[in-house]
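Every protein is a chain of amino acids, and every chain bends into a shape of its own. The fold becomes a row of whole numbers, each drawn from a learned catalogue of backbone shapes. The protein below has been through that process, and both of its lines are reproduced in full.
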Amino acid sequence: MTRTSHLCQSDLFKIRSEVLSRDVRTVLSYERAKAIGLAFGITLHDTLYLTQKFWDMHTDLIAVHDAAAWTLLIIQYNLAAGTLARYAATTRPELVSLVEDILRWNVIAQFCLTELGRGLDIFRMKTAATLLPSGEFDLHTPSPSDAKFMPPTIPMKGLPCVAIVFAQLYVNGECRGPRPFLVNLNDGYNMCNGVTSKLLPPRGGSDPVNHALTSFHHVRLPPSALLGNLNKSNKIQSDFISSIWRITVGSLALSSYAIPDLQMSSYIAARYFQRRHVTGGHGKPVPIISYRTQQLPLLNAIAQVFVLKALYKWAVGRFTDKSLDDLVRRSIAICSKAVMTQHAQVANYAMSERMGAQGLFEYNRLTSYYNVVRGISIAEGDILGLSMRIVTDILTQKCTPLPSTHPNDPLALHEVSLFEEATASVSSSSDFTLAFMEYVQPRCQLMVESMGHRMAYDAAVDQGVSQCLIDVYLVSAIKTDPAWYVERGMVTRQEIARMEDAALLAALPRLEEFLAGMEVEPYVTSPIISDERWEEFSKTLPVFSTPHAKVPVQQNFILERARL
């Protein structure tokens, strides 16, 4: 039994959230987030030094039971506690007790960075913190578009809420760049003076988080609220990037949700495909898993589970290697995020579609999984924006990605070629920016995904993932840009189809082995995986019927009404 398998069998996780009101679901999500966090026993040391326990928490299967709880957990432990732990361990030892309270859920903690009107241009935030003659700060939101966007800051569960709020620091009229401030938001019942939180409607399609717009009206902060110092810096932008390093940590940690997501969705789909029968060509019932239309998205998803597990293990090892340049570490996180979310979104959509009408219902989870990953692709920086940044760094030679361990294999050749084409386009132009925007920018995400595919493939090969799964994965990656491989004469369209068929034929006989290897059964709540589950589920549905005794012959009341 895994660390949290007892949680998925507890009352907290047995409750069918989809039938509850939003308010009740939100409270339940906080309870679940706390239960998961305490079950893992994450400490200040774990979040500060990014131990294996910290990374394992993000891929535990319990995450897919309630994405809202998981979101709250990641904000609490990575963004808030992780940022504060850095100061607590160096210049602000008095913050140790606060970090421990956050990790024990005695305090709710938020991370207020993004503004409604800024998006990714957050370095130019408008929220201002002005140093006063008393040494205090005046924290103010100048206009409605400058409100902090998304963090769930409304009072909840009677627990005090604090936040790390980023604001432009003004000293004697001079802007010294964005700085983090520790701010009390509410006491669990009422907002603090000058702090306003507006509850946003739910995103829809996923477990509801109480997202909000948060603004400040001349809130007076003590000198100790500033995390860091007042000194003017000659490298403001790099200092800011350093202060939000936990965002980069989150890019890798958050996107790893794709792994338990794919484990659950592929298991549910496999069992449904085995259970659901149609009449075959000989007039006899056959399971729909007999058809390539079902096998292809299913085996692709299963292959991605095992390959992405290898990628995550490799990426965590490199990301936590402080001997590597920060831009290289960031490129690893971004590429991992790009490829993980890409695979999960495509797989969830494809498998849900192959379930027909059953794929549409929230109780079968696949549509919810899709929407959660869609949110993850935007959280901690959306993939396109991050892709443009890392491609720019590579083309301007600020960042040199780690080389492939299999440089002569197809995915590595594809990656190199895409960057050579981009380099040629910008180097042949007298205007780098214009050439980048016209030719490279629309292809940045494809380029970063190609890096991610290559990294995932290398990791899977180097870690000994089953060859049949690697072959399935390789073909699926080639199919994301088949024109390049055909143009280079490496394969034809028919050869790609034959490669895919051969890979599926090798993997399909081992389906049960792969499903068992994912160890997801204790966590599955979907009723469509078996006749027994469906029968139990159907008993919980509201029934509208007439009494069974003395049922009269039904009259055609529509025709009778027409005659009248």
